[in-house]
Amino acid sequence: MSDLLLELFSEEIPARMQAQAAADLKKLVTDALVERGLLYEAATALATPRRLTLHVVGLPTSQPDQREEKKGPRVGAPEAALAGFLKSSGLASLDDARIDTDKKGGKFYVAVIEKKGAPTLDVLAEILPAIIKSFPWPKAMRWGAGSSEPNPLRWVRPLHAIVATFGPETEEPDIVPFEVGGIKAGNVTYGHRFMAPAAIKVRRFDDYVTKLYDAKVVLDPARRRDIILHDCKDLAFAQGLELVEDEGLLHEVAGLVEWPVVLMGAFDASFLDIPAEVIRATIRANQKCFVLRDPATGGLANKFLLVSNVVATDGGKAIAAGNGRVVRARLSDALYFWKTDQAPLPDFSDQGKPLDQRLAKLRALNIVFHAKLGTQGARIDRIVALARELAPKVGADPEKAARAAELAKADLVTEVVGEFPETQGLMGRRYAELQGEDAEVSAAIEEHYKPQGPTDRIPTAPVSVAVALADKLDTLVGFWAIDEKPTGSKDPFALRRAALGVIRIILENGLRLRLNDVIRKEVEKSIDTFVFSLDLRGQVQICDVDVVCFKSNHKVGFNYIFELPKSDNEIISETRHNAKKTFIGRAEDGLRAFFADRLKVDLRDRGARHDLLDAVFALGEDDLVLIVRRIEALDAFLKTEDGASLLAGYKRAANILKAEEKKDGAGAFEAAPNVSLLTDAEEKALFAAMETATAEADSALKAENFEAAMQALSTLRAPTDAFFDKVTVNAETPEIRKNRLSLLAQLRRAIHLVADFSKIGG
């Protein structure tokens, strides 16, 4: 078995592209090898700012030999057919073919084609150039004299060298013989750009890694991250400080250096008057540096950590000082933005407090939220109205919820958020606190964006919950209204995240909210907000706001009807009403189904069975808290002996009904059974048990005691088993048969009180 070492050495690979490029290289090469019958034991892809490296372990020295039997024409076939067979099979004459006999005694030729597997070295020489030339960089360039040639080599930055060696560990490996873009594959790479730029001859992966390390290159990005993190913590500890860890920044800076050296810089303590989040965003975005926390105060320290790519002769003093100057300049800008946002706006100084003035500016600028959904100002009005409506349902003060919703987007036009968009919401809270807003209102301004992902915390304060739900529900209803729904993996407006956010807020806060009612009301409101077109066939089409659409020679909008002949107006008025109704139903049903799908995803991630989800969702329940409780109770019930037995009895009854309903028609047995036709003791006992169990289950469900409801239904286990053991359902007398089937239909309805058991497996 042999190993492949492949390195593609270039000018620079942007940090954001390295991980994906390494993964792409591994997949492209290993897929091509497997496709050609070359199986391997393991493969590892690594990246630095200047190189992509692939190590494939345990490759055979050649492809496996192949043997193929190709059936030819019958013996005595025309010469043309025989000649074609010889040509396609590669045989010199018919003497080289085998003659077989089929079942009818006919004889035909068979060509046995044996193909010797090619050496792996030759296969690599074939596949590697094609992979390199077609490598899927998001952005690539061409360079040098070869850039004007047909189909030139394109790479993220100029490619300088290729290392490609193949061979067993015990022998000197061979160089894979190929050339791409004028660059021949070899066994020579280069070390650190500044500290060890000389050429390095390598053999295989082990000595390649060692020699690169000696040349000041840490090949493994995970090791570079580990070095940076530990050195940052050690340096901070030595100064009595704590590192503010940042996983995203750690990955980024590890992709910027081949030999990480951590240094500490400083800035003026006066800049600590700026909010900590702004300081961190400034230093992170502009200098890719880590901030430090002072454990004595709990706030940020006026020091930062940077990662250099060189070991400087002065210990890094000049590098740290240079970064410090840039950081101070950036913080000066941030301080200016921070103070400017607190000052009155010249054109809106009569609009109240600073944040109210920014809100007035946002409205005056008519900033578009979406071409079909109007401006941010109009959206704020919708969120305010919905937050006020939701507030009592979540235990919030309606006026506080409305005020928070009104100011929630005002920071979008502040200087700080304009420079650092990631601080939106947070800066709104800061400015609200400065102008004396209620603490709940200020918190809601920040928290209404949450949760931003599955690991983000959810708002729990009632005012924050009301505004967060209003913001997300308005987004979902709006985009559903204009038919901009997620498709496949595409979700440009993060509607799945918004729906999951609504679900998490409701479930984790235990909110008793009728989601269908909220969706219905918001969809109906959207009719009065957006303009639609329709034709006389009742087809609805969404149009841009304030744009008139033309369908079937009629100009129609839900907000107005143009002057037309009376007969046309009457027809259009009726069509308008029906189309509006159709649209509401379509949007409402679609959004409700979308929420159901998202809830199923969320609950499956928590371990819920998919069939139990389907069984409970079939009831049409929209109280998410009750749905989860019902699923949990159903899961526990089915794990008991009574639950499993009742499920088996239900399945038997459902199967009998399904077969008989095909004969008699759907709904043929839905009428209540006639007590006077119950003749056998077992069917009488089942009927009586159902009367009692149904009443008890119904009462328990009204009290939201799902465990008690299922316990009541479990009493049906024994009479159901006895019924099937002793009673013939399809009796000879038609009236008796129908009555017994009606009894089974009643059993089915009783069990459906807690869930649709037809959707449960087992």
Descriptive report:
The protein is 49% helix and 14% strand. Helix 21 (641-664) crosses helix 24 (717-726). A hairpin with a 6-residue loop joins strand 15 and strand 16. The protein is flat, with a radius of gyration of 37 Å. The strands form seven sheets. Strands 1, 2, 3, 7, 8, 9 and 10 form a seven-stranded mixed sheet that branches. A four-stranded antiparallel sheet has the order 13-15-16-14, sandwiched between helices. The chain contains 25 helices and 23 strands. With 762 residues, the protein is an alpha+beta fold. The chain has six domains: 2-62 and 119-214, Alpha-Beta Plaits; 66-115, no CATH class; 221-342, no CATH class; 346-523, Orthogonal Bundle (Hypothetical protein af1432), CATH 1.10.3210; 532-611, no CATH class; 624-759, Isoleucyl-tRNA Synthetase, Domain 1 (Orthogonal Bundle), CATH 1.10.730.10.
Q: From the coordinates shown, what is the CATH architecture of the largest domain? A: Orthogonal Bundle
Number of strands: 23
> How much is the average pLDDT?
88
| Rg for CA atoms | 37 Å
Number of domains: 6
Q: What is the 3D shape?
A: flat
Q: Percent range for helical residues?
A: 40-55%
